Amino acid sequence: MHNNNKELTLSAPLSGPVLTLAKVPDPVFASGAMGDGIAIDPLNDTLHSPCAGVVVHVARTGHAVTLRADNGAELLLHLGLDTVELQGEGFSMLVKEGARVSNGQPLLRYDLDKVAQQCKSLVSLMILTNSQDFQARPITLKSVKVGDPLLHIIRRQGSGAQAEVELSGEERVGHVRVAHRGGLHARPAALIRQTAQGFKSTSQLHFDGKSATCNSLIGLMGLAIGEQDDVQVTCQGPDAEAALQALLIALSTALAEDSHAAAPPPMNRHHREAEAGVLHGACAAPGLVGGPLFRLSAISLPVDAGHHDPAQQLQALDAALSVVRSEIDHTLSQAKKHRNTDEEAIFAAHLALLEDPALLDAAQASIEQGTAATHAWSQSIEAQCEVLQQLGSPLLAERANDLRDLKQRVLRALLGEAWHYDVPAGAIVAAHELTPSDLLQLSQQGVTGLCMAEGGATSHVAILARGKGLPCLVALGAALLDQEQGQAVVLDAEGGRLELVPTNERLAEVHQAQLDHQQRRALQQSQAHTPALTRDGVHIEVAANVASSAEAADALANGADGVGLLRTEFLFVDRHTAPDEQEQSLAYQAVLDAMGDKPVIIRTIDVGGDKQLDYLPLPVEANPVLGLRGIRLAQLRPEILDQQLRALLHTRPLSRCRILLPMVTEVDELLHIRQRLDALCIELGVSERPELGVMIEVPAAALLAEQLAEHADFLSIGTNDLSQYTLAMDRDHAGLASRVDAMHPALLRLIAQTCAGAAVHDRWVGVCGALASDPLATPVLIGLGVSELSVSPVQIGEIKDRVRHLDAAQCRRISHDLLKLSSAGAVRHACHQHWPLS
Ligand code: PEP
Ligand code: MG
Questions:
Q1: What is the pTM of this model?
Q2: Which top EC class is given (predicted)?
Q3: Which fold has domain 310-418?
């Protein structure tokens, strides 16, 4: 969401059809006398905050609330028309005056039926009450869901508020050396922009005689700042000093670039000797594959005759932009769910580019001259691509590819073309240049390799291709596009060669190599259903992390020895009412049934913190991650946990149902739940007790493992949160991603202490955080005493194979020495030496 001191994107506070103010059946609102704004005819029963801000006024009758957004815009949210006359009947206000609210936070709940029957209309308004300083521009006039982008708020040029911000703070100036690898390309620039948006002050970077506002990604990239370049930062406004300090840190802290580091150096095709029947390029992702060549072509636009209706074209562009925005949002949430940080960072940058004022303003200006939205968008992107390409930095030139990705996507949305290719599985795709979103789609269709006429080995497509294990060659030259559709080729990515006329022997040899690779994988899969024993006979259970019964079935098919973690949040999120006891019980039973005779560890609900539920308003917290999340919810809403425990006690057989408690910090929390469980068993006439385990994801729990193990049946280490809380680094922080590494010796010491504490009471310890899925960590975890690893379902075969090649006694000896090392990097290096990955 684009939120800075000048512009702000407001998300829909309600779900339902959107109306312009003119259509509102109320003369005062319809005339705009109250201010600019928009209306929604609501279908849901909760009003949510459209942005982050402060509640400045709450109507005594509970039907309206006014917020001040962080950029100074004041918004009146008014539920229904003439609802003041209901005198508060049917409304319940969830926030107080003065409270700080986050974007999407529930503000007000109302009885939909009652209010609808008693008032003139349910049409609800979002009005910009200081319209003299700001302008509101609708993003969509279709139906929206809560949280969809709805309105752009733009500060009017030269407005009083603008002057006030600029005058109300001194200018702060600082200098810093840029640490980002390759300089300020899209992802670091997105981080800078995001950092600046956290403050009210306006911020600029100055380099080499040029300046750019931190609001514009393209502007920032356009400065062509390289790694180790010295830049000047200026911030002006009420919080200039804080903004400056934050920007200096963001500029001088390198982003995680693991995948870049793994990239083989690009080769220059011009320096290669010509070889008949071979195109030379640079390796962007390794691998050797053969298959039919399949050419993809880009969209080309017909000539534009001009004289289009600007209002209509602007609306079409807005609608297309919001379609693409929600597609990218979906990709982002998938990437987040699967913890794919590369993918997440790339598409977050795309989202930021899509809102870039440099692009939008140019497109809008040309639409206003009568150009079609398609051509205006296309020209605006091409103009920016040219700027990037002329900067003389290959890395920035490659970012033009990200812009072209957005060009294609928005054009497809404008032209109403389905964004879908039909490529035969096994094909090697050839294109002028592929974009990140092309790549995601192609990889799902089972293509074997990628080659491009243009492109670079450090492009985002290259990062994604490496992540997906898809061999990829770039910079093969225009000749690539003259090749025949369907001709058999060999792509030797490491050799930088695309062999256009391979002999039958060569094709056979390559196929053999491909087969060998697949066979290894198949061998691992075929042995995935047998228990994993180390060479010296120690049994390690390899279970799966799942979030539904479908995923559980998939895990069983992949050889899982059980479910090591069922995250039950899946049942509670994205809905408007809580699942009742029966629905929960059926869902848990379905997971048990999907797992045959294997055990299933079901974690009680871990919401709170940053995961809010519509129907479960929790108090606003200054530090949600340190607040009422996990088991602490029992303190606030005991009935929710009781209901979940009851649902769990209805499942059969209880011997296979193990209950796991998240975020435990002290023994009393465990004892309390044990007592509740006993009481509920008596109430339900259940004689058997399910096993009860504790997650170790807070340092206090690891340090207290011995005491916890006395009362728990097992312990399961959540390395994701344990890293976050031990290292004091947000697990989702883009700039810290490479440092939130659970192989840090401090974490390993806590894991060792957990295992030692559990051993005193003869309890077993599992790991269900992401570290369990990292094959480099397998010997260390076994060595420290872990006996169960809960991994992502696709990795079961691989991790079991890894276990079978290890000697537990040797793992124990070496792992305890690793505790003395001084960094995660040193631990990883030592692991590569002792237990190389095959
Ligand atoms: C963890 O914290 O490691 C864990 C497994 O729980 P989650 O990722 O659901 O917070
Ligand atoms: Mg956790």
A1: 0.54
A2: transferase
A3: Enzyme I; Chain A, domain 2 (1.10.274)
